[in-house]
Amino acid sequence: MYASRKNTRVVVVGGGGTIGSSTALHLLRSGYTPSNITILDTYPIPSAQSAGNDLNKIMGVRGRSKVDMKLELEALDMWLKDELFKLYFHQTGRLDCASSNRVASLRQQYQQLVDAGKGLENSNEWLDSEDAILAKAPVLDRNRIQGWKAIYSRDGGWLAAAKAINAIGAALEAAGVRSRVSGAGSFKRPLFTSDGTMCVGAETVDGSKYYADRVVLAGGAWSPVLVDLDDQCCSKAWVYAHFRLTAQEAAAYKGSPVVYNSDVGFFFEPDENGVIKVCDESPGFTHFKEHQPYGANAPKRISVPRSHAKHPTDTYPDASEKSIRRAIDTYLPRFNDKELYNRTLCWCTDTADAAPLICEHPRWKNFIIATGDSGHCFKLLPNIGKHVVELLEGNLADNLAQAWRWRPGGDTLKSTRGAPAKDLADMPGWKHESVAKM
Ligand SMILES: Cc1cc2nc3c(=O)[nH]c(=O)nc-3n(C[C@H](O)[C@H](O)[C@H](O)COP(=O)(O)OP(=O)(O)OC[C@H]3O[C@@H](n4cnc5c(N)ncnc54)[C@H](O)[C@@H]3O)c2cc1C
Known about the structure:
Helix 1 links the parallel strand 1 (10-13) and strand 2 (37-40). The relative contact order is 0.18. The model has no long low-confidence stretch (mean pLDDT 96). This protein is α/β, with parallel strands linked by helices. It has a single domain (10-93, 155-426), classed as D-Amino Acid Oxidase, Chain A, domain 2 (2-Layer Sandwich). The chain is globular, with a radius of gyration of 21 Å. The protein has ten helices and 24 strands. The longest helix has 16 residues, at 66-81. The structure holds flavin-adenine dinucleotide. Flavin-adenine dinucleotide binds at residues 13-14, 16-20, 40-43, 47, 49-52, 57-58, 185-187, 218-222, 226, 238, 240, 279, 346, 348, 371, 373, 375-379. Flavin-adenine dinucleotide (FAD) is lined by residues 13-14, 16-20, 40-43, 47, 49-52, 57-58, 185-187, 218-222, 226, 238, 240, 279, 346, 348, 371, 373, 375-379.
């Protein structure tokens, strides 16, 4: 048990987002005094520019590594049982599909689940034919899934993402956790002792200073822009769009599993208003600029997110319209003529090996980095903050500390994806200049 939870002051930068809100929640649950926890974010929780502020996200146990498997199983348990989270998990099942040369790696993924010794053979099923896939998702069109194989996972489903973060926000507010937004919440730089080695707080863009024993930087895609991370994170945007079904149309899709294919993208059952979200799959888009993060000696080329909250008329590249339409044509061809809206660029930050970067800054004692989500951390909302608190208290498990350590080098532009990200400068169609007031 950490000796001084009651007296330790913690500032969580990005507390309106996924990892930050989870961290603040676990500080509270671990017995930190609410008035000693300060959440800083540009926007109120759930932050309008957080990657987690979304209609829905996929939940599933994929177990790409032992560490991932442990975290995913822990998260699954909390999504199912934790009073705060269970309302937001819709366990509709999940279909992971592939065809042609991708089938071998899907089969390998299935085998890993079965061999993990966690009983996953009981909730995962290999589907070897179109008939077997259609039996799980009758809404799919047989002509569009010729030659497909799939893993059906009964454990999986979707998460009402923004609502879940909102619930954390309500719990934090009710407990009296301090939160600052706008200029008073936007991180500018860490504050240090006179020798510059120990962090003692954070300053925000309006000049406010928040003194603390620990500062956690959970700035998502903005993290490498705010503080020099030695090029360990490259921020990239992915896209989605919405369309609306009539009540009658939506009824047929109620309870459909999430369907994912890495060549196509994914979709979810409609929400209570008949809205379907469709994502394509791509290596993402960067937005390189000359920029000097705090701690860098000089400006450098770095991918700087362009917030859709600050630029609400931005959409996505013309090329994404084609790939989103292709996903709709594959999964939902009867809705090919539906009007799309909420075409959005949503920002995450990739590490080279797709594991998060969650560690103390090597030169700044008490400054904790909690980022590098690599586009798959929302499902860990219930538990990731628990491990950030462990790190803060010096008891993070060795395997997590090893996976999440400070580790410069590697190709963040490609990461573990099929190809390097393209830059938005080369992708016409997304930029529409109108700046929202905060
Ligand atoms: C289209 C899309 C689909 C996805 N689908 C899935 C999925 O199905 N399943 C899944 O598990 N994951 C999914 N993800 C990934 C998931 O959303 C992210 O991994 C996760 O939300 C990242 O959390 P984060 O806390 O690192 O960043 P965020 O949630 O983005 O939080 C960062 C916070 O930092 C704040 N901030 C920025 N600048 C400052 C500043 N100067 N001062 C203070 N605060 C600041 C922001 O306002 C924000 O609140 C998806 C992502 C995208 C884009």
